[in-house]
Amino acid sequence: MTDISRSNRKRYRASPMVRKYRGPSGLFPAETQILAALAPTIHKRPVLDLGVGTGRTAPDLATLSGDYLGLDYAPRMIQAARKAHPDLRFAPGDARNLAHLPAEHFALVLFSFNGLDYIDHTGRMRALAEIRRVLAPGGYFVFSSHNAAFTAPPPYARSRFVPSPNPLRTLVRLGHYLMGCLHYLRLRPALREGADWSLRVVGERNFSVVAYHIRPQSQVAELETAGFSTEALYAFTGEGVSPEKTESLPWIYYLARKPPRDGSRHPPDAAFRLR
Ligand SMILES: C[S@@+](CC[C@H](N)C(=O)[O-])C[C@H]1O[C@@H](n2cnc3c(N)ncnc32)[C@H](O)[C@@H]1O
Asked: pLDDT tens across 38-61, in order?
């Protein structure tokens, strides 16, 4: 059976994926909103940008914190991030093993653009434990994750192939469509549909990547098991969402928190009540 963590890692280590992630820059709307609200909490305190890719989120986080570290398990991503942001600190590292980082150190850990979803269930729980360990008491964990309550058309859906008036373009599109179907067939033994979470192929590199999808209520429970409270959920647009009403959202942002040492809640929390 395909080990999804290994096959995804192979994809993220390859040049085409690095080229793809050199494209987007700047924060997504939900990230802008969450980080603006967290700004007073993370000012001048250490932040960890996990699965940083080529550094899309690096400049904004570094400006907010002044003590920035970006980590990725794909060496080419790290090389590209260093090239794009030579003044910032990046290092190779796997979210499932952060033993080289001190405990209770970071005010914020970000795992953006669904990076956590490219690890299998066991690895995901290990990553959550590691993130909790390196977060300072009361520290925040912000991430996004594919929503299992959202149904996307499968790779083989006929609607994915749209012929063009140009025969050559039609041929290229047909090749792309068939290649997506082949990737799906190859990965199908690794896919899973469960009540809480599923493993599904996603459009990334023409369906050659498998992503963990989870129902929002199950994600809240999973976070609780891992020792986090969930402060709020957001759509990509930054709008706050209720865990029960998310069928139209392909992915969801979660704002989670490691409990403070004294169990207290401090002011920024008021902005994020779980709806
Ligand atoms: C979808 S890309 C997002 C990249 C970047 N955060 C962005 O938003 O542009 C996911 C990134 O997570 C990284 N990644 C996936 N699993 C990881 C893990 N276990 N440890 C560290 N990085 C990981 C991949 O190499 C890839 O760069």
From this structure: 999 999 999 999 999 999 999 999
Q: Does some domain include residue 77? A: yes
Q: What is this structure's pTM?
A: 0.93
CA-13 nearest atom, ligand 1: 25
**How many domains does the chain divide into?**
1
Domain that holds residue 34: 4-151+210-272
Specify the residue for token string 């140009």. Answer: 166
Domain contains 123: yes
pLDDT in the model for residue 78: 97
Q: Determine whether the shortest distance from the Cβ of 269 to ligand 1 is under 6 A.
A: no
* Probe target for ligand 1 pocket from 27, 52, 61, 209, with the most ligand atoms within 8 Å of CB: 52
> Does residue 90's CB lie within 6 angstroms of at least one atom of ligand 1?
no
- In tens, the pLDDT along 140-157 reads 999 999 999 999 999 999
Q: Cα-flanking dihedrals φ and ψ of residue 6, to 5°?
A: -75, -45
pLDDT at 205: 84
CATH number at residue 258: 3.40.50.150
* 3-state DSSP of 123-174: HHHHHHHHHHHHEEEEEEEEEEEEECCCCCCCCCCHHHCCCCCCHHHHHHHH
